[in-house]
Amino acid sequence: MAQRQTPSTQTPTLLDSLGEEIVRIVAPVSICMFLVVILVSVLNSGDSSFSVSSIATIAYTETTSDSSWDKFVGALLNSLAFVVVVTVATFLLVLLFYFRCTGFLKIYMGFSAFVILGFLGGEVLIFLIQHFSTPIDCFTFLLLLCNFAVVGVMAVFMSKMPILVTQSYLVVIGILVAYWFTMLPEWTTWAMLVAMALYDLAAVLLPIGPLRLLVELAISRNEEIPALVYEARPVNVENLDPRVAVARRRLWRDRRATENSNLRGDANVNVDNALGLGANAELNHGSDSNRNDPSLAGEGAVLDSNLSSSTSYGTYSDRNLVRAEEGRVQETDSEVTTPLIGHGVNVRMHSRPEDADASDENLMLEGIGLGSSGAIKLGLGDFIFYSVLVGRAAMYDFMTVYACYLAIIAGLGITLMLLALYQKALPALPVSVALGVLFYFLTRLLLEVFVVQCSMNLLMF
Amino acid sequence: MTVAAGIGYVLIALGPSLSIFVSVISKKPFLILTVLSSTLLWLMSLIALSGIWRGFLPLKTTSWWPYAILILSSIAFQEALRLLFWKIYKRLEDTLDAFADRVAKPHLFLTDKMLISLAGGLGHGVAHAVFFCISLLTPAFGPATYFVDQCSKVPFFLLSALIALAFVTIHTFSMVIAFNGYAEGNKVDKYLVPIVHVIAGVLTLINLAPGGCTVGIPLLYVVAILTLIHCGRMVWRRLLTENRISLNHS
């Protein structure tokens, strides 16, 4: 008797694994935005009489009684001041990195993570306790907060933590900073978003841009930049043979060189590269002895249980690695494992909002890129600014929230496509922020009237 | 009417689509991306429509024909968009097949293509529900509720949630019917989908009359159920013929 099996249960088709990397980045960005929107709508139900003074309001403090022109000029001045501070901080960072003070940078990173989680997190928790009138005493609160902050610092800087904990803490840091930014006055927030997007564009693409210098320094020295970066699937580097880790980074550069020198007349190839985002070059742990062994792919597959659906990609990437090590990169396979190279903005950040004086704001973010393990990396600053945009939209109405969310995700997708296409450092902010701001104003001015008019008469289509 | 009622309205409008999402779409990342992009496309069409109509709003007439023009023009625009969506999907399908050849995987099966069209339809439906119903639900989470004049027995939020549910069904499954119709060249299916959309839109015009919602909404559900049945029959027929072909070949 003939057995009838549906095709999809027999073999895993293309649909099962394509686009997985993109979804793994879109999911935490969505969670971050969603939680910021919830926080904003819960805590800001009254008018925000709590005004925050910081670098971003150093030039002008907005009050509701000023005229529109005053607010506009004030917002421009504020954002200009902010961008200037950020530029100076980034150049300082480049200088420190150039003089190899990585130890100092790492300690500073840990300190800022602790301050964000401890003080900002504590403040948000106090707001929540006030709002919901939760009975809790201060000793318990302090104990829990301290533990939370310390575990967070350890999660962010030690790679022995479970991946989920590290990723959750990074998202929490993003949420806290984004919430704090939404407390800035409205015009300043929008002006700052646009200014940061333009700065991102300039700093990454111009030859004198600090971020471009930083990225080139890091690649030429074969080091990782110490930064708060969300990696979609970080690999435990300590388990690997150091030679393998170094070889992988070198491969990355070599492959970039060979691919740039190869002619790409075929338009299909570029689209395939974009689709090849699903692959990752992660399955190359294992011993250094017999690299030609095809069973290495199997070993890699066993080592990482997450990659059960993409083991087939692993085989290709492994063979690719072997050939690249021997100096021959085949064109056909490289489409599957196209590395996305792009490190974007690098600005460092920490903030102490309880301080009435203007606090220093240095944001360490990195745009979209490919980690040395092959997973997509997205800088925490991008999380933060996306969430600030959506949080600000939430302060107006939920329709703008949905529109801005879709616009930002679309921008993120477009940026990833461009990254695969151009194979060089690209900033992650400009496209998404541009689309987000555009959709916000379009929704607020055009869509809302239309939809409310139709819905109130129960007319829908 | 409190948070519980608000969540209830959200689930009425989006419950079935949530279950489709969790059970079918979340397993394949490509389908999640398809849902997001079709939602975005629908939103862009809605913004374009509101841009065109902005000069005429708010309509202060009590007669029904300006609203009829509004609805008919919007539906015409959206059906044109569906055609565009199909053209884009055709190009994507060729690219995906070529890519599948390169990585030595099988070409897209019929079930895969149907899943993609289901995801596209779900995106449209969710966009409709979100922008016409959910985004107006913010007051429903508070202590009071709201009634419209034409239908003063039922809270407005419940009405819009019910209508949204019907439209989610219509959008989701008519996309499957439409893509299948374009693929097979089946004239019946190709023209059925815009007609169903127009009928559904025109049925909501009945809601303009006082007390009209008691007639309009059940009729809308009849249309939705008919769409569902037609889609089910069509899918069943295609899968049977496909399996018969593959059994004959093997």
Automatic annotation (TrEMBL), chain A:
Tell me the membrane topology, using the record's own terms: Multi-pass membrane protein
Q: Which InterPro entries match?
A: Peptidase_A22A (IPR001108), Preselin/SPP (IPR006639), Presenilin_C (IPR042524)
Known Pfam families for this protein?
Answer: Presenilin (PF01080)
| Localisation per UniProt entry | Endoplasmic reticulum membrane; Golgi apparatus membrane
Per the record, the domain of life is: Eukaryota
Q: Which SMART domains match?
A: PSN
Q: What are the record keywords, sorted?
A: Endoplasmic reticulum, Golgi apparatus, Hydrolase, Membrane, Notch signaling pathway, Protease, Transmembrane, Transmembrane helix
* Keyword Iron in record: no
- Annotated coiled-coil segments of the chain: none
- Region spans: Disordered: 282-301
Q: Does the keyword Nucleus apply?
A: no
What are the EC numbers?
3.4.23.-
Name the residues that span the membrane. 21-43, 75-99, 111-133, 139-157, 164-181, 187-208, 402-422, 428-452
Q: What is known of its domains?
A: The PAL motif is required for normal active site conformation.
Q: Which PANTHER family match?
A: PRESENILIN, PRESENILIN HOMOLOG
Q: Which family does it belong to?
A: Belongs to the peptidase A22A family.
State how it assembles.
Homodimer.
Q: What does this protein do?
A: Probable subunit of the gamma-secretase complex, an endoprotease complex that catalyzes the intramembrane cleavage of integral membrane proteins such as Notch receptors.
Q: What is the recorded name of this protein? A: Presenilin
- Which taxonomic lineage is given here? Eukaryota, Viridiplantae, Streptophyta, Embryophyta, Tracheophyta
TrEMBL record, chain B:
Nucleotidyltransferase as a keyword? no
Compartment(s): Membrane
Q: Would the keyword Transport be found if you checked this record's keyword annotation?
A: no
Q: Which residues cross the membrane?
A: 6-25, 30-52, 64-85, 115-137, 157-179, 191-209, 215-236
Q: How does the UniProt record describe the way this protein sits in the membrane?
A: Multi-pass membrane protein
Q: What are the protein's UniProt keywords?
A: Membrane, Notch signaling pathway, Transmembrane, Transmembrane helix
Cite the InterPro entries for this sequence: Aph-1
Source domain of life = Eukaryota
Supply the Pfam families for this chain. Aph-1
PANTHER family reported in the protein's UniProt record: GAMMA-SECRETASE SUBUNIT APH-1 (PTHR12889)
Give the UniProt family note: Belongs to the APH-1 family.
State what protein this is by name.
Gamma-secretase subunit APH1-like
